[in-house]
Amino acid sequence: MTEEKQNPDQKFLLFLGCAIPYRETSYEISTRKVLQGLGIELVEMPEYNCCGLPLDPVNHEMMLLLAARNLCLAEKEKLNVIALCPGCAGTLRKVNKKLKENKELREKINEQLKKTGLEFRGTIEVKHLLQMLAEDVTLEKIKAAITKPLSSFRVAEHSGCHVTRPAGEIGFDNSEDPEVFKSLIEATGSRYVEYTDKTACCGAPIAGVDDRIPLALSREKLANIKEMGGELLVTVCPFCHMMFDTNQPRIERIFNEDFKIPVLHYPQLLGLAMGFSEEELALNELRVSPSKITSKIS
Amino acid sequence: MPQKNVKDIEKEDVLKGPIRAGEIDFGFRKEIAASPGGEKLRHCYQCGTCTSDCPIARFSDSYRPREIIRMAQLGLKKRVLSSNTLWLCAACYTCTDRCPQDVEVASVIRILRNLAVKGKLIPSPFKELGKNIVETGTAYRIPELRLKKRAKTGLPPLPKSNIKAIEKLAEATGFSQMIKQSD
Ligand code: SF4
Ligand code: SF4
């Protein structure tokens, strides 16, 4: 398929997905602020639906069609897509790749999509926010936008599985030894904290089936971060954020431990370093109070 | 079907016990290999990397991806498809990335789940998500209050989904049937 260059300027369709407007608007608010500050224009994605991922376990074809429908809508807008949720980004990115490469599958899916007046042509790209920041905004531009370097913060990352896995289909960064998130955190002036099993899953996808395992997994990660002196955790996934922030008081109670590790969406961290106020970045919506961190900002 | 009660899943023993010749389905391997992502099932040589690197297996007494793969290879269709442990995979793709034989372990588990619910009730967490998607376009019903709050905080209104189009796709895949049946 021919690759049309359709992003001459820094303009993207924003795929919001379901979990962010439902529970994690602080991620959306801070992302919009920061991207505006970096000169990125966001266009709302008309008529979008769920990326399809939640239904993959029960009906793979339905997942493919829901994803493909979103891709067709983006093609109509002639814009590349960014998604803030790694589940959405990974799903749309994988399906986009599969449909571009596999003619047989493309024809099968298009046969169904025809019933809704759409056709997949393969003319756009999909990226997760992290990938877009690194590749389209670039580190240099981000560093140039920093007005308040957060040099006293010791920050750990949890990127969420689908930003890099499965490596063969996502094709971004190195899933075993990722570097992009680290460089984006360091760009804010923060000190980056390594910890054991940082690429491990938080377990969120099975919370609806059994929440004991996700809670134990997240507890272990918080304990590993604490052991390495991490004061702050940053995420780029609404589900991971719910596991570490919303559920942190519960984890502390169940395991009788004390963490009090604030969990920021990466755009909140970046936004603070760019000089935006706590209010502009919706820091008040966090469950674990970030005041011990924000009080350090002069 | 999975309950929110992990003790039941942990006690589960449908995967255990001696194998009887009569329960082997010799076509099962082919069925899996014919689905996208299941092609390499036969290549598994039981090294155990998937299980030892699986975050869920570390905290579960019953969930073992290597075991599920082996039973699928052997054709123990009924056992595998009726096992509740299937629903514990978090689809983190660690196993898929690390399998030395390029078995797409997470995709095989997805294929098994799809087969397990074929023509049956879907587990309640998925039924709810599915109904929400077909009826509203999104996996969660976003409360009116949230929408009002969006406007107040200056966020643009959420785009409305095209429910008619989604319904058509759900009909075409038999998905609407799957959520109706489980009512
Ligand atoms: S890692 Fe691959 S080869 Fe090893 S047991 Fe798992 S599926 Fe089989
Ligand atoms: S994808 Fe599933 S089986 Fe594989 S490592 Fe993750 S949780 Fe375990």
Describe the structure.
The complex is a heterodimer of chains A (298) and B (183). Chain A is an alpha/beta fold. Chain A has helices at residues 19-23, 25-37, 60-77, 86-101, 103-113, 129-137, 139-144, 167-170, 180-187, 212-227, 238-246, 248-255, 266-273, 291-294, and strands at 11-15, 41-44, 81-83, 126-128, 154-158, 191-192, 232-235, 263-265. In chain A, strands 2-1-3-4 form a 4-stranded parallel β-sheet, sandwiched between helices. In chain A, strands 6-5-7-8 form a 4-stranded parallel β-sheet, sandwiched between helices. Chain B folds into 2 domains: 6-118, Orthogonal Bundle (Fumarate Reductase Iron-sulfur Protein, Chain B, domain 2); 124-180, no CATH class. The model of chain B has no long low-confidence stretch (mean pLDDT 90). Chains A and B meet through helix 1, helix 2, helix 3, helix 5 and helix 10 of A and helix 4, helix 7, helix 8, helix 9 and helix 10 of B. The structure holds iron/sulfur cluster (SF4) (2 copies). The site of one iron/sulfur cluster has 15 residues of chain B, from helix 4, helix 7 and helix 8.
